[in-house]
Amino acid sequence: MSRRLGVIGIVVHNPQTISDKVNLLISGYSHMIIGRMGIPRPEESVGIISLIVEGSTDEIGALTGKLGLLPGVTVKSALTGKKSIVKEEPLNDQ
Question: Which of 15, 47, 69, 87 falls between 20 and 30 A from 39, CA-CA?
Answer without folding.
Answer: 69
